[in-house]
Amino acid sequence: MTLEQTIEVPVLGMDCAECTQHVRQAIAAVPGVSAVDVLLATEKAVVRLDPVRADRQAIARAVEGAGYKVPADRQAETRAFGRSVSRLFGVLVIAILALVVAGEWLGVFDWLTARLPWPVGLAAVLIGGFPVFHNVIRAALRRQVIAHTLMTVGVIAAMLVGEWATALVVVVLMRVGDYVERFTASHARSAVRDLMAMAPQQARVERDGQEIDVPADSVQAGEIVIVRPGEQIPVDGVIVSGQATVNQAAITGESMPVETGPGERVFAASLAELGSLRVRTTHAGRDSTFGRVVHLVEQAETSRSDVQRMADRFSAWFLPIVAGVAALTFLLRRDPLAVAAVLVVACSCSIALATPIAMLASVGAAAGRGLLIKGGKHLETLARADVLLIDKTGTLTLGRPQLTDVVPLDGMDPDELLQLAASAERFSEHPLAHAVRAAATAKGIAFLEPADFEALPGLGVRCTLSGSLVSVGSERLVGAPTDEARLASLLEGGKTLLYVERDARLAGVLAAADALRPEVPEALAEVRQLGIRQIELLTGDAERTAAALAASLGIPHRAQLMPADKIAIVRGYQAQGHRVIMIGDGVNDAPALAQEDVGIAMGAAGSDIALQAAHVALLRDDWRLVPEVLRIARRTMSVVRLNIAFTAVYNTVGLTLAALGILPPVLAAAAQSIPDLGILANSSRLLRQR
Ligand code: ADP
Ligand code: MG
Q1: Residue-wise pLDDT tens digits, 22-52
Q2: Amino acid 477: pLDDT
Q3: 502: CA distance to ligand 2 center in Å?
Q4: Which residues are catalytic?
Q5: pLDDT tens for residues 259-317?
Q6: N or C: which end of the chain has fewer CB within 10 A?
Q7: Domains and CATH numbers, the chain
Q8: Shortest-distance Cα residue to atom 24 of ligand 1
Q9: Does residue 419's CB lie within 6 angstroms of at least one atom of ligand 1?
Q10: How far, in Å, is the centroid of ligand 1 from the Cα of 372?
């Protein structure tokens, strides 16, 4: 038996969907490869292979055979196109295009053609167009027709009628167009790259009593890491000793530093601004919250949206259509120059770029602000959603409930009641469990050792304590009858009641209060303004508790729901044709989050389930991110629509003018890179959000 491995190979030179397809095919053909994912955004291939039959070198050879590059030093190469030169680049391209237009108008190219001998022209075209011809021939040998194939035919047509200067200009402009495309793609990636650049590199760990520097991703769980003032925290972990002001902007997008100390959690890629820390590692490298966020952002482009699938389908038809128009032009008008113009004016890459460029820019920029969107598809759905369902505990409320009342029954001792409850809750991750444990710890109560622990999602917990069966949870969990009158006053206050039952007898009731997140009312008002008509509170909590909270927010509610009920409600809405967003905290609601059209998880930093199950993860507990993600979705979709409309109109007008002979080949070639520049400028707006 052999173990499969997943490796990542950087690939340079991919500008559009067409190219990723070629790379994918080339790698898939390598023996021993079982799966390939080619990511345009981060310029790499993720390959699953059998290490005995294939290796990194074999993959690199395949990629290079397909005409793309595998850099030895990734950093040096990708930095070549920085964000800072973007303005300059645009100006430069426009200057070149202006020169060409002026040259055509003044007749410079005709003059050159007349003066210089033909062989000189041919040589210039061959040299200037070498990289293009090279790719075209290589693709042809593999029986592939690429966008440049048609353009090359156009160049040949111009050469045949002796217009070598025209051919030369076209060839040069084809290469300018390539750069524009590469630049556009690279620019959209910049936000994702900025994010990756924040990944911690080195960690200082204590091993055998010594401090040694090791790569951050090689730190093992349980190892102690030392962080000095001003240093980046290299791993996810729990502070063992030390105090520090930690800035978590890299993960949560919140740049306000927080004071942390022993027992508190810290995340890789955050910064210890003041103070030193010793941290016990829980997760490092790709397993850390930051590593997973980066990974999910990289994966985001593999979930294709409907618009994108449409664009892909269209670009597959594009080359045949252009070839058809060229053939018609030749048959009807017998004008080789018009044919050349038709072949060079069209540009399938801009159609392929229109959607992913905008989505990439948005997903990347959002991740830098603590908003993880796991795919362009979700942006599209968010932009069209009309129902918002909200989970209560930990989502609407702070999720840090405090125990307010301990009501023992049947003459039981209050401390004993608390001990029973806290011991039963010992292994529960539920916010209410934390509250019970904290109250017991504060009173110095020792915990008992629970046996046969069982967590019942949406109900509570059950276990055996010193031979007795103990249950803690909602009214529906316990069988024993309750004295309504005594508890009514607690319920009216909107508190959550926890019933504690021992051996089928009610031992007492605990009450916990959880404050509403202060920014909720304003955020909900904004969400309503953004056109989400129906907002509803769904909770597993008691009817009266839910009613009090829902009334204060002016929204309807449904209480006493099991996780399965929540899913059924979502399905109900979906069956009526609604697009549903659900917001939860991943505790007890992960299945419902995954069922939604879009599931949004609050406070996903450090919560594996929330990060995994949700489509959108808010890495910061901040409701203002909810209207924000809706706004981002709408802006992205409007940029996408504009990109698509622009390219479609541009290509149609361009093809028509070229076929009618109104647009000479030189101007057609100049026109070709304009849609790309438009997409670049339009999509850049998304990088500069907020
Ligand atoms: P929500 O839908 O508000 O997020 P949950 O589905 O997490 O609430 O839980 C619903 C109800 O189940 C809680 O109000 C509480 O009464 C009970 N419950 C769930 N888990 C626990 C637990 N670990 N300890 C005590 N009660 C619990
Ligand atoms: Mg919950």
Answers
A1: 888 899 999 999 988 887 766 788 888 888 8
A2: 87
A3: 25
A4: 391
A5: 999 999 999 999 999 899 999 999 998 889 898 888 888 777 767 778 877 877 777 78
A6: N
A7: 5-72 (3.30.70.100), 78-188+303-359+637-688 (no CATH), 202-285 (2.70.150.10), 381-397+517-621 (3.40.50.1000), 398-516 (3.40.1110.10)
A8: 460
A9: no
A10: 27
